[in-house]
Amino acid sequence: MKRKIIKALYQWKNRKNHKPLILEGARQVGKTYSALEFGREAYENVVYVNFEDNMNIEALFRRDLNPSRIIKELSVTAASSIFPEKTLIVFDEIQSCERALTSLKYFNEQAPEYDIIAAGSLLGVAVNRSNYSFPVGKVDFLKMFPMDFEEFLWAIGQEKMGELICEYYHSLEAFPLHEQAMGFLENYLSVGGMPAVVKTYIESNDQNQVINEQKGINHAYIADMAKYATPQETARLMDIWNSIPAQLAKENKKFQYKMVKSGARAYQYESALAWLASSGLINRCFRISEGRPPLSVFEDTASFKLYSVDSGLLFSRYGVRAEQVFRVETGMSEVRGALAENYMMQALIQNEITPYYWTENRTRSELDFVFQNSEGAVIPIEVKSGINVRAKSLNTFIQTYAPKRALRVSARNFGRTEKIESIPLYAAHCIRDQERKNG
């Protein structure tokens, strides 16, 4: 499957004096596949090492961390020659070998001619919890996410549709294929962007098989919690994880500890929240009290919303069928709203945007997302899952802060009023960290 990360990997490779690369991301988002696919495209050969599956390989790093010796012995172990600049070395699940992670420092300093990509699904958890000698300043980073909607369109043979959507995003003219695009989006919201799930959807077109694949990934995440956390912490991780679907389905989506467990307190769950964030399983969106730059000054870390790593995995946890959710006459507006907002959060962070949400007590206003772009402009976003787009909170924000742009993302077609740009949900991936070029 075509992934956007490949372009970023080429940029890393072609950058002068690049360092060993750490590819971060939740389990099953496609890190290993993408690294190997990139290696096959851009190098003469690839040497792949999985530290979880092959515990014996750890012995190569026990004696010392001399890159020359490690390369020689790794070449013998892998039964493959390793050439400077012509071979890509992939260290997978590197969190399982602390010495291998530390060795990246010495490869950068003593053998920069060797290209290394290290991947770790739970690397953030391992580093935060152990006495790892992390190679600070000696590695490059890339973060990988599930497939976004545009990548999903590529996978199902609708690449041209993806191109047209962004063309109309820039013009804001009504998109003639609006209904068709909304249909594809509904499929994406229920399938999600996990490559294995998308593959199952394409090959079977069977919702039952898709849900089984999603449940398998959710169970694997739960198994990771039990494997890498203490028993007490695992219980708290599970409490938070199990509460996310209900937290997002309520009207006020602010994370509430009382929905996690009766009598729960913030201090009891701080570590568990950090674990889930480090593993990439959740995304946190913090509240801001003011909608003016710099937004970070007005961040309230005690108030936040939690989002799932993938809309499809979230969908599967509601235990409903896609046709029930996306037919308005069946109700379930709460589930549609949860999926739309979760999807919007994914689209923003995948485009390297740091979103916040805004509340104003006097008028009881709450705006789903606000971000500050690299030029310092503050851009508010209101998200609606349907075509009812009354935007009281967005209008309040506009009247208070007079932003240059204001976006309403909904099931409606492209358009523009005097103050608000109408963006269909299926074009969320087109929102970038800069002002529209044409003004």
Assembly category: single chain
Overall geometry = globular
- What is the tally of beta strands? 13
Radius of gyration: 23 Å
- Helices and strands, in order, run as HEHEHEHEHEHHHHHHHEEHHHEEEHEEE
List low-confidence stretches.
435-439
Q: What's the average pLDDT?
A: 93
Structural class, judged by helices and strands?
alpha/beta
Strand order of the largest sheet: 7-6-8-9-10-11-13-12
Report the helical percentage: 40-55%
Distance between the termini: 35 Å
Strand composition percent:
15-25%
Q: Number of helix segments?
A: 16
Number of domains: 2
Largest sheet: 8 strands, mixed
Task: Please describe what this structure looks like.
With 439 residues, the chain is α/β, with parallel strands linked by helices. Helix content is 44%, strand content 16%. The chain folds into two domains: 139 residues, Rossmann fold (3-Layer(aba) Sandwich), CATH 3.40.50; 282 residues, no CATH class. This is ATP-binding protein. Keywords: ATP-binding, Nucleotide-binding.
Detail the topology: elements first, then pairings.
Blueprint: H1 5-14, E1 21-24, H2 31-42, E2 45-50, H3 67-78, E3 87-92, H4 98-110, E4 115-120, H5 123-129, E5 140-143, H6 149-155, H7 159-171, H8 178-191, H9 195-204, H10 207-228, H11 231-249, H12 266-278, E6 282-288, E7 299-308, H13 311-317, H14 322-326, H15 333-350, E8 356-360, E9 365-372, E10 378-383, H16 392-401, E11 407-410, E12 415-416, E13 421-424
Parallel strand pairs: 1-4, 1-5, 2-3, 3-4, 6-8, 10-11, 11-13
Antiparallel strand pairs: 6-7, 8-9, 9-10, 12-13
Helix pairs in contact: 1-2, 5-12, 6-7, 8-13, 9-10, 10-13, 11-12
